[in-house]
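User: Run a structure prediction on this.
Assistant: Running it now.
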Amino acid sequence: MFKRILKLAISVGFFTAALLKILLLRLGGKSPEALCVVLYYHSVPLKSRNKFARQMDTLVRWTNPISADSRAPLSPGTLYSAVTFDDGFESFLENALPELERREIPSTVFVVTGSLGRSTDWVGYPEKIMSREQLLQIPSRLVTIGSHTVTHPVLPNVSEEVARFELAQSREQLEQGLLRKITLFSFPYGAFNEALVKCCKAAGYERVFTTLPFPAFADPCEFVTGRVCVEPTDWRIEFLLKLFGAYRWLPIAFSLQRKLRSNSVGNPTVQSRTKASVSEAAGSHEIL
């Protein structure tokens, strides 16, 4: 809870500074740059459906929702958003999709192909993945399907051969099973490196998504796109700040953490804590 409140407080300060900059630009007769934030969810349980619906009401009120595969240039001074879901849980079909369709909000679902129709034991998300038949029910008009590997590994921890298999095979399985072109991919746990980005390009993907909350689509043709993690249970102010891009300071903090960890090499106590922190972050889909 303390970490959550601290992030919120820093984000309020960041948002205040960003808003002041926008006001100064407008006073000077200039239009601020466009801003697009890509949100990513995992599960939307039935008990959280009403909260998710209120978040989507907020999203359409303050932003222009676009698809995660959009290539159109962004208009200056406009706030955009894109909604994505990792893993492909049944709760997307049952609880999230009806609310998205009601508001005509496009979305993208990244699917773990090796777990179709099966329950998972991933930490924090003990839920069933949609089956091929359920995926076929999803309307292509509003929903884009993307790949999330075959077995949901931490990709930097596997060999290049295994990583290439996970990337290529998941895409092939989706294209053959759903008769859709698959061009988008998201990294499990947000774990990636430059070598994996090159592997994604070689596998034929046109855009890949991380869990680093950088603004998206500043370049319509960008290949690596950042996202911010959202839960239906987020506080209203927390969701608003994420939607307005106020959490984009987190990668800077993450970079500082990495530098501190690299400087701690040789200290067994610090090394042990560092390894535990990295493991915890990967399991909880968090950065800090």
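Residues 152 and 188 are 6 Å apart (CA to CA).
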